[in-house]
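Ex. 9. Protein: Membrane protein.
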Amino acid sequence: MATLLYRLGRFSFRNRGRVAAVWLLLLALMGVAAALFHGPSSDKFSMPGTESQRALDSLAREFPQASGAVGTIVIAAPEGGKLDPAAVAPVVREAAAVPGVLAAIDPFQARALSPDGRYALVQVQFKDNVDHITDAQREAYLKAGASATGIQVEHGGEVLRAAPEVGGSEAIGVLIAAIVLIVTFGSLVAAGMTLLNALVGVGVGMAGLYALSGVAELTSVTPVLALMLGLAVGIDYSLFITSRYRQFLAEGLEPEEAAGRATGTAGSAVVFAGATVVIALAGLFVAGIPFLTVMGLAAAGTVAVAVLVALTLLPAILAYAGPRVLPRKQRDGQVIATEGFGYTWGRLVSRLRVPILLVGIAGLGVLALPAQDLRLALPDAGTAAPGTPARAAYDLTSEGFGEGFNARLIAVVSAEDAAAVTAAAGQAAALIQQVPGVLAVAPPQPNATGTTALLAIIPKEGPTAASTEEAVHAIRGKVATVAGAEISVTGATAVGIDVSDKLGEAMPVYLLLVVGLSVLLLMLVFRSILVPVKAALGFLLTIGSTFGITVAIFQEGTLAGLFGVEVPGPLVSFLPILLIGILFGLAMDYEVFLVSRMREDFVHGDTARQATINGMGHNARVVTAAALIMTSVFGGFVFMDDPIIKSMGFALALGVLIDAFVVRMTLVPAVMAMLGRAAWWLPKVLDRVLPDLDVEGERLSHHLAASAERVPERIG
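Predicted structure tokens for Membrane protein:
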């Protein structure tokens, strides 16, 4: 591996013009393809095989006029007053005139009025589903009722769901990353070159993703996740190779040779670090949820592009940079101290390994305690940013009717004839009304043929309340006893519950697959059993403490205001499995970068303890910079209003901080110092079976030494 990458690095360095031209041409082609084939994103969380999805599919077939997007306009009279039909009529009329609207239902005819007569709900039924609602339709919908006077009009409903805007907040993370690079390298050229290399990779990956969006359905979160990871790993991978290149230059190697060796050694670590991230993300397919599979594959694609760019384009850019990649002092011939804080920290951790392990494990265990109260749900308008139309409508509905009206469920009753549907719907309505968490059940609404009827169900509490989840399960249990018809419960709340249940079932399989494959991969890299096992156990500490802090802030509200969390509540359903996949891959990044250098020095003759100290000494500064960069990139997304992106960015940033500084740079060297030579033990049977990938570059060193001996000495 190292020898192959060494040759690739030298080739790219020597042919810098061609390599750079190929990547720039690819970037341009991908940009054109993205412009031509870009398709709309989706907020549809399809769940094949679940009851809620079967009900939605049945609606699309049997009751198409009720399967489109729904908007809800909430109207309120001044305090102490009552609504009258004349004041509400303009709102209904203007809503019905919105392009694509099938009907807007007068609340006085539908009896959608609060008991005191002050509040009313106007249901607006669109022909198309939410993925096909245009911005022009949303704008027209938001203007409905603008002519009404003397009343408050707020617009809500799923029709307002749109893709989160990727604005300037993530640029904050890139700016901080640039500052960290400048401080780390002491060279504007090195920092700018590393950042440019990463941005080219992100550009190619994102353009390719948008080009595919015309043929593959992407959720609105997918591009943001791909952008997060593409930026973070792109900068980190370039940082590691550039740092090793500068080290070889400082040792007196020629630039081309230094580029080849940096790509062969640090590049090998990049390949396997990237492979663990790709495995973790691609493994999301085991959940059997299409939107989650697409998210994982899209993010894995951007990571793979980042690896390719780091191995090929970066050596070419290094060739253009010349000696300016070094700090000015080194270019002027001044000697810079080789030992820094990393060596001091490595020695300290090695000496105090037992107390450090005890304090570290106990501390992370305490931080993980809130995770036992973790609750999951899909986001609703109640978690939207204050001041947005959806949030205003949610709050006004809760004020006038109770939170349960924001969590409406639908029971779909289907049979071969109208009589069976009528009988089953009546029986089901009576049973549902007996469920403790149900406030009301509306009369059945049959389709034109009478073979399908809808029962609107109003829970007593909001969409994310534990009682509402219990009510959904109880309703399904009750209606299962009704004979003569098929009855399924759906609605946004039911879909969220099904997502959580299905993800819970998939989690053990996912963990076994991802952790198992990654441990096997690390066993190939390090030729050790204990090192991969230690890496996986350290990850459990990372993920536990990350979940604990995230639950405390986003769910329980501790310090919520500090992070812009207006309404604490359950975490988004797919956050745990997504967070586990991403953080596991990133955690193995730092494991590979740190421990591969320990392995390299151990193989080349150092004692196990000294190799551990050397690994920390050589890589602590770079890993620190990489962790700060990745944290700043993820942290930039915390400033977005979208609750999914905010919680995801926070959890990823926090997880990287904990894993890099507490687990990898503190607990890992402590464990390595405690294990000594035993850390590199591998049974002879496995030693013979496992291929030697030469990640540490031992065979490369022998190859270079042999090549040097074959070169005849020039005389006179």
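Check your answer against this statement. The first helix runs from residue 2 to 14.
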